[in-house]
Here is the input.
Amino acid sequence: MAVTQNLPETWLGRRLALWLRKPVLVTLGQRAIDVERLGYRLRLVPHDNVSEKRVLFTPQFFDSEELSLLRQRIRPGYRFLDVGANAGLYALFVAARAGVDANIIAVEPQPAMLERLTTNIALNNFSTIHVAPIALADRDGTITLRLSADNRGQASVAASEGEPVDVPCRTLLSLMDTRGMQQADAMKIDIEGAEDIVLTAFYKTAPRERWPRLVFIERNSSKWRTDVIALMTGIGYRELNPGRMNVILELT
Here is the structure.
């Protein structure tokens, strides 16, 4: 781990990291490991979650463009939406830097990841992160989430395969109303191909003063029925220099 954390963010650095981490993962098996990464404490279970695996061995590679931009923008009282929070990596990053007046909503419906998320929040005593144990959709009610056995981070309401589990769902605007968030300074949304379901409904109903100012969206356009990037750039967002894993949009 000491070696992989110091590798350069190049093709060769990434290949070396993949090779070096294999024997460690075999040794760890299904065990959790407590570490400090990205400025906060974490209990990581890397065997079944790609995001936890990445941040354990190569935190310098983990969404480096996105986190660098966030680091520049975060200020006291920052308002942040982490949709598809996973183990909480983005929400914790903001909480570690935004002070006691921050308002952070971490949305995670998957039971196993919800437990990891709440554990990581507790390890850091972050009272500014409010967990929403629901899925986001285009309506309030219940929706079927499909779980992946190989990668916990691939659970999705848009998937056709995987173990089904029914979870409560809300619209993004409904969630913001419930949690008292008028407007988010930034939002990360990574829900494995269901981003268009959530965002199309949101931008159809939410007034402009409720729109997030900065949005990070995972590149899932091949799974979308509606091109949300085109939708958002057509209503007043501009695309910034893209991250490796995400499209970055800013409200103009």
Q: What stands out?
A: The radius of gyration is 18 Å.
